[in-house]
Amino acid sequence: MVVGFLLTVGLTGVAYGLTKPTYEATATILLLPPASSAIDGANPYLRLGGLGQVVDLIGVALTDQATQLELQAISKDVTDTVQADPRTSSPLLLIDVKDTSPDTALKIRDILVSRAPQRLDEMQSTFGVVRADRITSMVVNLDTQAQEVGKNRLRSAVVAAGLGVALTLIMAALWDANRVRRSRGVAARLPVRSRRTLEQDSRDIVDLEQDSPDIVDLEQDSPDIVDLEQDSPDIVDDDDETGAPPLIASPADSPELEEELADAPDDASR
Which CATH architecture has domain 2-153? Predict the structure, then answer.
């Protein structure tokens, strides 16, 4: 479990470090009415109506394929937006550039800012509008530094952390389940082995009896064996081996000898 959390922390750090940050640079361009439309030096900001359509046209002109290919050649990660500023109804053209490099974001933003008056002039010259009647433009806002925006790195770190925690919990659950399964398996196999051992021993005994049918009880195979004292009345004590005189068994110790002695007088009288 601890190892899993340590790996999760490492994975989160790697994801945060490998994810590139996003930097944004913006600019705002205001369109102004032609000088010929002024009456007696009237304020031009009071005559901004009707220029909104021109802002939309410039936005389309700056997002053509040729311009996009030129920007992609500078950076593969660049994303740009050229459109009317949605925060106001004034004829403001908003240029928004995002890139993984702050310097590249500023560079591409400056390219689009310089192209805006050029495209505006080209569109009017195509219709033969004289210089005095042409719409002009001026830069209102221009970021000096690209700012880091978005939460790409934080989002990647959170995703990596969530994935690491999920994998850690899954692996811990599988490990616990496997340990319980193995414990139950060992406990279930022990009685079975004991029964099998007893059954095997019983089969061995039966096989031994079947393999040796001639082995019978000692009393069944030797019915004529009688007591040693009955068959050997003259057996003397172990002292005979040491040279002592033999001891004759008394009639009381041998019933057969007593019977023979009792019959002896009858045989003599005859």
Answer: 2-Layer Sandwich (3.30)
Q: Which residue has the higher pLDDT, 17 or 24?
A: 24
Highest mean pLDDT among 38-42, 46-50, 201-205, 248-252: 46-50
Portion of the chain with pLDDT greater than 70, in percent? 56
State the first-to-last Cα distance of the chain, in angstroms, to the nearest integer: 116
What would the DSSP string read from start to end of the chain? Answer: -HHHHHHHHHHHHHHHHHSPPEEEEEEEEEEE--GGG-SSS--GGGG-TT-HHHHHHHHHHTTSHHHHHHHHHH-TT-EEEEEE-TT-SS-EEEEEEEESSHHHHHHHHHHHHHHHHHHHHHHHHHTT--GGG--EEEEEEE-SSPEEES-HHHHHHHHHHHHHHHHHHHHHHHHHHHHHHHHHHHHHHHHHHHHHHHHHHHHHHHHHHHH-TT---HHHH-TT---HHHH-TT---GGGGGTPPPPPPPGGG-HHHHHHHHHHHHHHH-
Q: Can you give the pLDDT at residue 46?
A: 82
> Is 186's pLDDT higher than 60?
no
